[in-house]
Design brief:
The chain is of the alpha/beta class and 412 residues long. Helices cover 39% and strands 17% of the residues. It has a 7-stranded mixed beta sheet. A two-stranded parallel sheet has the order 1-10. It starts with a strand and ends with a helix.
C-alpha cells in the first residue's frame, strides 16, 4: 500500500469514520502547532520535525477545540492508506515512513512516543500497531479472497507513504540516493543511514520504508500547482503554457515569482506566506510570467537543497519524477539552478505504485528489500548549463531577498 501522508482518518469504537478525513494540505491548525510544541518541549528532538499544520497531531488539537464531540468519540486515528488496510485485512496497522509524518512517532527509535501523544490528549491505544514497510502487516480477509476468486489469502505488506514508496520504486534506498518530485507539491528527497533532523531549516526527517533506514525531505507546497494556477488565469492548459517557452534561451525570466500560494514549508515553515510576482513592467507577457513560475519553483527547490546540505546530506545527482518532469525546459532550469545532473527514467510516473509492489514482494517472499529495490536504468540525463548558471545565481539572490522583505506585508 502507498498513499498521501499526514491525513487524519478518525474512527469510532466500531471502526466507522466520524467525519471526512482531514488531509495533508489543510492549514487550519497553525495556532495548534505552537500549543503542541509548548505541551511537549522535546517534540522536535523526538519527532525530528517542526510542528506544521500539515502534520496529523496539530489536526487533532484543532479537532479537540472545534469538534470536541468528534474528538471524544475517536477510538483510532489512521492514515489514509492504513484505512484501506483496515478494510482489506481488518487490522489497525501502520508502518514507519507514514507514521513518522504524524508527529507522534519517536523517529529515531521507530516507535510511538507517549510524550508526543500526551501533548495531543491521546494514547497508544488510539494508534495502530507498527511494522516496517517491507514486513507483513496482515492477510487479506477471507470474505474478500472468496469474492475475488483467490485460492490463497495474500499477505498485505506495510508499504510506505507516497514519497518513501516512490524512493523504493526508483531505488533511492542507499545513503545519498535522491530524487526530485515535481508534482502538485514539490519534494527533494534524500535517503540517509541515520536519523538526522534539521528543524531549523524546516527539513523533514522521517523513517524510510525499509528497516534501519531514514530519509530527509525538503518540501514546497505549490510546485506544478503554481503552473496550474497561472494556467487558470489565462484559460490555458499548463502543458500549452510550457510548450510556448520550451525552445526559449535558457536565461532567467525578467520577473521573480514566489510560489507560496499555499504558504510554505521548507525553509520558512510559514502557513501564512503568500506568493507574488516582482519586476512587472509593460514588457512582461504571458511567456515571461510562465518562465517566472518555472524559475520560482526551481529556486524553491534550491532552498530545499541548501536546507538538506545544512542537515549534513550531500546530494550528487537527482532522479526526476512527477508530472512536471515531462517538461524538458523545466528540468534544464532545475539542473542549472541546483547545479546537479538530473536523471530521467522510463515509467517514473508509476514509481510510487512500483515501490509499493516492491515492498509487497519483499514481504511475501521474505526477501531483502535492498536487493529488491534496485535503481532503475536511466533514460536520459539533464546536465547543468554552465553558461547560464551565473545569471540564475543572481536571480536566485533576488528571489531569496523577496520573502524577508515582503513577509510582514503579505502574510495572512
Amino acid at each position: 500500500l502507498s498513499g498521501q501522508m499526514h491525513g487524519a482518518t478518525l474512527l469510532d469504537a466500531e471502526d466507522k469514520p466520524l467525519r471526512p478525513a482531514i488531509l495533508w494540505n489543510d492549514g487550519r491548525s497553525a495556532a495548534q502547532c505552537a500549543a503542541f510544541e509548548a505541551a511537549c518541549p522535546r517534540a522536535r528532538v523526538l519527532a525530528g520535525n517542526i510542528a506544521m499544520p500539515g502534520f496529523t497531531a496539530p489536526k487533532l488539537l484543532w479537532l479537540r477545540e472545534h469538534e470536541p464531540n468528534v474528538f471524544a468519540r475517536t477510538a483510532k486515528v489512521l492514515l489514509p492508506k492504513d484505512y484501506v488496510r483496515l478494510c482489506l485485512t481488518g487490522d489497525h496497522v501502520s508502518e514507519m515512513s507514514d507514521a513518522a509524518g504524524t508527529l507522534w512517532l519517536d523517529v529515531g527509535a521507530r516507535r510511538w512516543s507517549d510524550e508526543l501523544l500526551a501533548a495531543t490528549g491521546l494514547s497508544r491505544a488510539q494508534m495502530p500497531a507498527l511494522v516496517e514497510g517491507s514486513e507483513v502487516s496482515g492477510q487479506l480477509r477471507a470474505d474478500l479472497a472468496a469474492r475475488w476468486g483467490l485460492a490463497r489469502r495474500p499477505v498485505v505488506a506495510g508499504g510506505g507513504g507516497d514519497n518513501a514508496a516512490t524512493a523504493c520504486g526508483l531505488g533511492c534506498v542507499t545513503p545519498g540516493a535522491a530524487f526530485l518530485s515535481l508534482g502538485t507539491s514539490g519534494v527533494l528527497f534524500v535517503s540517509t543511514a541515520r536519523f538526522a533532523p534539521n528543524t531549523a531549516g524546516a527539513v523533514h526527517a522521517f523513517c524510510h520504508a525499509l528497516p534501519a533506514t531514514w530519509h530527509q525531505m525538503g518540501v514546497i507546497l505549490s510546485a506544478t500547482d503554481s503552473l496550474n494556477w497561472l494556467a487558470r488565469l489565462f484559460d490555458r492548459r499548463p502543458a500549452d503554457l510550457v510548450a510556448a517557452v520550451e525552445t526559449a534561451q535558457l536565461l532567467p525570466a525578467p520577473v521573480i515569482f514566489l510560489p507560496y500560494l499555499s504558504g510554505e514549508r521548507t525553509p520558512h515553515n510559514d502557513a501564512g506566506a503568500r506568493g507574488l510576482f516582482a519586476g512587472l513592467s509593460h514588457d512582461v507577457d504571458r511567456a515571461a510570467l510562465t518562465r517566472g513560475v518555472l524559475d520560482g519553483v526551481a529556486f524553491a527547490f534550491r532552498d530545499c537543497l541548501e536546507a538538506l546540505a545544512a542537515a549534513g546530506s550531500g546530494v550528487e545527482r537527482l532522479t526526476a519524477v512527477g508530472g512536471g518532469a515531462r517538461s524538458r525546459i523545466w528540468l534544464r532550469i532545475l539542473a542549472t539552478v541546483l547545479g546537479l545532473p538530473i536523471d530521467v527514467i522510463d515509467g517514473s510516473k508509476n514509481s510510487a505504485a512500483f515501490g509499493a509492489a516492491r515492498l509487497a514482494l519483499a514481504a511475501a517472499e521474505d526477501a531483502d528489500p535492498r536487493v529488491v529495490c534496485q535503481p532503475l536504468p536511466r533514460q536520459d540525463t539533464i546536465e547543468p548549463e554552465a553558461g547560464s548558471a551565473p545569471a540564475y545565481a543572481a536571480a536566485f539572490a533576488r528571489y531569496r531577498a523577496l520573502y524577508p522583505a515582503t513577509r510582514e506585508a503579505l502574510s495572512r
